Amino acid sequence: MSIAANRALTVAVLGTTQTLSWASSYYLPAILATPIAAEFDLSRATIFGIFSLALLLTAVLGPAAGRAIDQRGGRDVLAVSNLVFAAGLVMMGLAPGPLVFGLAWAVMGVAMAMGLYDAAFATLAGLYGKEARNSITGITLIAGFASTVGWPASALMEAEWGWRGTCFGWAALQVLVGLPLNRLLLPPVPPPAKAAAAAEAAGGPEPRFADMALLAFVLAAAGFSASALGAHLPGLLQAAGATAAAAVAAGALLGPAQVGARILEFGLLRNINPMVSARIAVLAHPLAVAVLLAGGAPVAAVFVLIHGAGNGMLTITRGTLPLALFGPVGYGRRQGLITAPARATQAFAPYFFGLLVDAYGAGSLLLTAALGLAALAALFVLKARPA
């Protein structure tokens, strides 16, 4: 098999297993929260609170998972993540009450640290070094449909088997599909000593803490806005004056806008500096907010398209910009450190932003727009620092 064909197979495998892992973890509560809350006599907010705590655990464990990928390669770590996902899902399906259910989500938090985008990006960095950019874009193109696939699949399983059967169904897919794909079809990475020797021959200083902190702030600010709007978009558009039907119709454009931007990145923008892509991506949200606040409900769809395009590009930037700035050696651990604040802000953003929407309506977007402009300024400061 040619080098290009091998790389295409790797992207296809990771895109497929990422779709499975996102669908059976991050996108699961949206469908199962209501029946679980009803059975355990809890509020939906409590279910999502447990999920938020799992995301915080993922943030804490991200650097350790990344370091394991740096040392052993992503193939084995991703394969183990499929087993941990399956264990958490089975535990959830068997949970007799809230305590065991919470412990099951703790296991899922471990699995998400080992098995979602950052782990896949680190795997590609270990395999292809600085040439991993297009491969990173490729897996986000495929896995960008995780909610499109996952939500209907979860709803269908829940209707047929109940929420517990849904957990068991996703666990079976992790073992029967995800595990063999990751373990048998992903190539091994070069030994760490060989990779380090290649990096030393290429030269380049160790990244400074200030540079990593600036990039961490950019991703945290962008992650807050993406998570907040992902949870409250229809209600926010209604607060801006749109009808319920118009808000849902405009909100449905979010997914296509994200995927369309990723296709643009994969095609026309694939050869431009990742810093330029990052600046375009973070500028998109403040621009979208300006359009909505100036035009109101009639431009709701335009707001969603601009915001969604920026958000779609930011997913790629999260993987490609650290690679371009700091190189592939030690990428996994460094990526875990850089993205930990973003994971934390994404965990609490829906709750906090919901309070702002209740109090200020569409005016709450001034906060996310300000965060976007601050992230843009940080990117210019980061670019000005010596490489």
TrEMBL record:
Record-linked Pfam families: MFS_1
Keyword Transmembrane helix among UniProt keywords: yes
InterPro entries: MFS, MFS_dom, MFS_trans_sf
Residue ranges occupied by any Major facilitator superfamily (MFS) profile domain in the UniProt entry: 10-387
TM annotation in the entry: 47-65, 77-97, 103-128, 213-233, 239-259, 280-306, 359-382
Keywords carried by this UniProt record: Membrane, Transmembrane, Transmembrane helix
Ligase found in the keyword field: no
Protein name per Swiss-Prot or TrEMBL: MFS transporter
UniProt organism field: Neoroseomonas terrae
